[in-house]
């Protein structure tokens, strides 16, 4: 899989953001106001790094270690409800947190009216991002599916490629065509997990950098609690996808690591660049706004198509109306809870 190349591209983009955004402020920061204390702000930022790191690790690891709890196995009803709740969180993150941040950046008074206030760049970029995510999703699955079929035909149906995709009990005791279908579904889960993590990581870096550059403890203090809850539930959604993808220990550790450290990493770099970085410089606003719009489109597509639609249109929920109703309740609770948190975020 091309996950490592994806992360290299992501961090190249992040580093570019750090350097191009280091320019002088042109108007009052959205994080500044009457409460301005550099020493106190640094104290809160250090607390934020530790608390968000721990919360992120707990959130993403909970589903992965749920195999030791029979009720939370991927084939049980409780797992379906937890995943539906987490999918609602991811959906609200895209619509209620990331997209409004992009609107705020790209329609800022610090930017000229032409063209930034004459054209809805946020929704346009989010739309293109969703289409590009669909293309990535489709091409990735088609490529690996073709590779899977070629390998299967060369080995008479019992391919080592299938064994490579199968870990644990997902493909055990499965023969013939059913085994190939299971391998294709597993491949689908892996593509979903990697693309979803990419969208989450992009937003995490941007919001971490913004917090790290702020000198306003009155803003940082409530943000710590909001981001901890945000990372906890978003991590549960990603962790559920990683669990279904049946990765080996090394790949699980890599994905857990990147999800857990990106927001603290962004905060730490924001602290280091706080003397030269301005969240109201034109370049910073444009770059952050564009990245947030890209992340919003990606997260909205993944939540609606690859997570919610895939589950609700699947045979398990379609054949059990009562479970489907409870799953919708879980989605609304997750989306509603994350939407309410937008007040403090």
Automatic annotation (TrEMBL):
GO terms for cellular component: plasma membrane. It is found in: Membrane. Its main location: membrane. InterPro entries: ZIP, Zn/Fe_permease_fun/pln. Residues 1-24 form the signal peptide. GO terms for molecular function: zinc ion transmembrane transporter activity. It is a multi-pass membrane protein. The chain crosses the membrane at residues 48-66, 78-99, 119-144, 255-277, 289-313, 325-344. Keywords: Ion transport, Membrane, Signal, Transmembrane, Transmembrane helix, Transport. Belongs to the ZIP transporter (TC 2.A.5) family. NCBIfam families: zip. This is Fe(2+) transport protein 1-like. The lineage of its organism: Eukaryota, Viridiplantae, Streptophyta, Embryophyta, Tracheophyta.
